[in-house]
């Protein structure tokens, strides 16, 4: 409890130090707050308002690695942030001081249940790199392979859980006090962060992601994925092949190696669309620190990808709608874009399509005044999603990851080759993919995919046919029995109605006989006894003897 209180006081001090009080709407607060704390905070408020984006970044850096990581993830939510704040948060660097190599060695030995000297012929206690969640050490296996060992920071899970709870508290506070803050959906952002950062704490998940990406690009000339050594991989430790290459952001080294930058940029775009539409599994954390280039063939350079902790995927329906949305936008068919959003369920079914279409046109049409190569593919998606939010579009987490990755890829591609025309690469890919979804190749692929299941069902077909025929026969028998029962019931109803008529007539006869037999009326009816007896017998016959 004391630790949480001290941590909260540290956060509160940081918020005041970096003048984040500018987000508090004192004009809406009670008078005693407005004329006390509000007056104090008004000093220098105008300058603080101008620098608030930078101050947010400095505050997150001051609070430590977990908040830095939060700021990095927040910077990808350009559908929620204004451009100035998103760009400022994108500058956050994850240069975190390393923890002791001896502690890392203890974690490795505890996880692998063996001394380091028994597993590795060489092991460096000096970290190669250090980040907010883990740090990396180099080693060599006795079989001769050079490897790197990724180790989760000690007790980082407890720190993360505490800080996440504090972030939720701050998010609720912002959501309550500030309309501007509420627009940023702080609770939703913290939930996204919690999901992402907790996944990064399990290195076995990252190892599994890496293996799947490796299988998807096996023997590929586009992308190389390092090998995972599963025998030495646990939740807190991962051992993988050590790669060598040029960091993709080191333009000078790439130029010195005579790498074809146009080819490199186009291959990056091709890798992205292949992952998204062909594999339905894409690397969602492709910032420059996670990408290297193999320059051994400079005319056809190959990418090397590491750090597969954050991966995204789209189902067939999402891929189909996304591809059709982008192609419709390219053709400036905004009516189709609006209809696709409604059809996919991304916006409510009752959304007025004509109003939605008009809103999309007002946002997207100005983009086409620019040369096609200057249109940002990522900004197109952001524009579409921001417009859809005005029509109550629900948050689509898989699309947010996609948008973030696309922005990274597009920015990287234009950094490598400023004249990159993303549409030239993307449009043919999307058109080809759409044709494959409805062509004979797709049908054959589905047949091939379902064939093993069909073959497994073949031996059961005779029994299934026999059972089906037996059921049909039994259904016919039951139907015939039901038909006969209905007929019998109908006849019974007819007989019942007929008997009711006879009984009614019998009652009338008995009643008339009683009327005639009244002593007071005998003087007026001479043949009363004979008539009354006859009517009485007729009534009894109709009531009792008549079937």
TrEMBL record:
CDD domains per record: UbiB (cd13972)
Protein name in the entry: Probable protein kinase UbiB
Keywords: ATP-binding, Cell inner membrane, Cell membrane, Coiled coil, Kinase, Membrane, Nucleotide-binding, Transferase, Transmembrane, Transmembrane helix, Ubiquinone, Ubiquinone biosynthesis
Pathway: Cofactor biosynthesis; ubiquinone biosynthesis [regulation]
Principal EC category: transferase
Alphabetized HAMAP family for the sequence: UbiB
Taxonomic lineage of the native organism: Bacteria, Pseudomonadati, Pseudomonadota, Gammaproteobacteria, Oceanospirillales
Active site: 285 (proton acceptor)
Coiled coil: 472-499
